[in-house]
Amino acid sequence: MVSLLVYTPPPSECSYLPHERSQITYEFVAELSPAEYLDRLNQGWRRFGHSLFRPACETCSECKSVRVPVGTFRPDRSQRRALAANDGAVELVIRAPSVTREKLDLYDKFHRFQHADKGWPNHAPETAEAYRESFVANPIPTEEWCYTLEGKLVGVGYVDAVPDGLSAIYFFHDPDQRDRSLGTFNVLSVIREAERRGLPHVYLGYYVAGCRSLEYKGRFRPSEVLGGDGRWRPFAK
């Protein structure tokens, strides 16, 4: 690993729980091996672009790292409906990340919808360079998962492969297709692909009770949550 900078900014308003104050430790890295990132995942870190980050809040511990044990996962009724609605209709291609106008337009459309529906920050159009820094110029080998429906791009996900699993980084989709539950379908697709590769875990990032944008991660059962002692335990909501 080539680490460039570690810093912890002062606390600010939490973007997940507005009544809380958030403090995050960041580490900027130029290079990161899959094994090194797995070690960080097991310490509660996540990655976005060249930034590793981990909550350092003094008064709140609601950000809980969650992973799904692939061998014991069983989809519930709504997840089976998502599979039935999309299997055979939505095509998935896994490839190296790239920037295209189609992806930029879909990314902007998704964020405009999330601003109106969930109160996300107002979104300015994404530039190709900003998108490249977030999703393409990665310090670790990253996969781009592109979902198409009748030839049209309807979803894009980014996934890191680590020695014992797949780590879902980010996913955005066409809000006009929200009845298809593409976010759920993406997680289910990652779980199935991990199983196909013989990998035991799928890392979903942080679950935060009370945050509409993150509570969905608790619906993939059974799952495990990372404790403060660095051990993964069954997650009981």
Keywords, separated by commas or semicolons:
eight-stranded mixed beta sheet; Aminopeptidase; 25% helix; globular; 237 residues; alpha+beta
What does this molecule look like?
The chain is α+β, with helices and mostly antiparallel strands. It has two domains: 2-55, no CATH class; 64-234, Aminopeptidase (3-Layer(aba) Sandwich), CATH 3.40.630.30. Helices cover 25% and strands 33% of the residues. The protein has five helices and 14 strands. The protein has an eight-stranded mixed sheet, with helices on both faces. The protein has a four-stranded antiparallel sheet with strand order 1-4-6-5, covered by helices on one side. Helix 2 packs across helix 5 (182-196).
Tell me the layout of helices and strands.
Layout: E1 2-7, E2 12-13, E3 21-22, E4 24-31, H1 34-41, E5 46-48, E6 51-55, E7 64-69, H2 77-86, E8 90-95, H3 101-118, H4 128-136, E9 142-149, E10 152-162, E11 165-173, H5 182-196, E12 201-207, E13 224-226, E14 232-234
Parallel strand pairs: 11-12
Antiparallel strand pairs: 1-4, 2-3, 4-6, 5-6, 7-12, 7-13, 8-9, 9-10, 10-11, 13-14
Helix pairs in contact: 2-5
